From TrEMBL:
Source domain of life: Bacteria
Organism per entry: Roseovarius indicus
GO terms of molecular function: lyase activity; metal ion binding
Annotated Mg(2+) binding sites: 127
Name of the protein described by the UniProt record: Putative 4-hydroxy-4-methyl-2-oxoglutarate aldolase
CDD domains referenced in this protein's UniProt entry, alphabetically: RraA_family
Binding residues annotated for substrate, in chain numbering: 126
Keywords annotated in UniProt: Lyase, Magnesium, Metal-binding
Signal peptide: none
SUPFAM superfamilies the UniProt entry points to: RraA-like (SSF89562)
Length: 232
C-alpha cells in the first residue's frame, strides 16, 4: 500500500543568489538575459504580465520560491508565504490548469506585505482591479473568477515545471513586460560574465540603426558567394 504523502511539505533552507548577483540583473532587459544564455531561458509566452502590464509596472528580479500546487490548488502558495524572504518571487505551479484562479488581490496583498518582489503562475488570476491597487508585479496566463482549493498534497521551496521550464527554488528570476526568464543558480555568474558583451553588441547595433543602418552584411555575403539568390 502506498503511504499517503504529507498534505503540505515546506523547505525553508535552500541556496539563494547573493545580493550582488541579484543586483547585476536589475534594469537588464529579459531579452539581454536570454541572449546571454544562448537565446533561451524564458517561460512559455502564455505567461504574460497581468493586464498586459498596462496598469502595473511589471518588472522584478529576485530568487524563485517555487510553490508546486497542482491543478486548481493554492495550498503550496499559502505555505510559501510562511517561508518567503523579502525579495523572493513566488512561482505558483498549477500545471497549466485553466478556468481557475491561482491568486487574487488579497493574496497578492499578503505577498506584498511579506516582502515578495513579484508573483508568477502558469495559471490564471482574479480580482484585477484589486491587484492593480496592491501593485505587486504579477505574471499569469489570463483571468478567471473561479476559486481554487487548498487540499494538497503540496510542496513549497522545492522545484516544479512552470511554463515548460524546470525551475528550482533559489534560481534567479528576471521578469519584465516581455516575459519571465529563469537563470539557474549554478549559471548565474557565467551569465553575468556574458551580459557585458551582450550589452556592448546591442549598443553598437543600436547606434548603427539610429544612423540609418538597414541591411545585414551577412546577407550581402550570402548573395556574393551564391548561398542566396535574388530572383527578379
Amino acid at each position: 500500500m502506498i503511504e499517503e504523502p504529507p498534505v503540505l511539505t515546506l523547505r525553508r533552507s535552500f541556496p539563494r543568489p547573493s545580493a550582488a548577483q541579484i543586483a547585476a540583473f536589475r534594469d537588464v532587459p529579459t531579452g539581454f538575459v536570454c541572449d546571454a544564455m544562448g537565446g533561451q531561458g524564458a517561460l512559455s509566452s502564455d505567461i504574460q504580465p497581468i493586464g498586459g502590464g498596462r496598469d502595473i509596472d511589471c518588472r522584478a528580479v529576485g530568487p524563485a520560491l517555487v510553490a508546486d500546487n497542482g491543478p486548481a490548488e493554492i495550498l503550496a502558495t499559502m505555505g510559501a508565504l510562511h517561508i518567503l524572504e523579502p525579495g523572493d518571487i513566488i512561482l505558483s505551479a498549477v500545471h497549466g490548469h485553466r478556468n481557475c484562479s491561482a491568486s487574487g488581490d488579497q493574496f497578492c496583498g499578503m505577498m506584498k506585505n511579506k516582502g515578495a518582489a513579484g508573483f508568477v503562475t502558469d495559471g490564471e488570476m482574479r480580482d484585477y482591479d484589486g491587484i492593480v491597487e496592491v501593485g505587486l508585479p504579477a505574471w499569469c496566463t489570463g483571468l478567471s473568477p473561479n476559486s481554487p482549493y487548498s487540499n494538497g498534497p503540496a510542496r513549497a521551496g522545492f522545484g516544479a515545471v512552470i511554463g515548460g521550464v524546470r525551475v528550482e527554488s533559489g534560481d534567479l528570476i528576471v521578469a519584465d513586460r516581455n516575459g519571465v526568464v529563469v537563470v539557474p543558480l549554478a549559471e548565474i555568474d557565467r551569465v553575468i560574465g556574458r551580459l557585458s558583451k551582450v550589452k556592448e553588441l546591442e549598443g553598437v547595433l543600436e547606434a548603427k540603426v539610429r544612423e540609418g543602418f538597414c541591411q545585414m552584411a551577412a546577407i550581402e555575403e550570402m548573395i556574393a558567394d551564391g548561398r542566396a539568390v535574388i530572383e527578379d
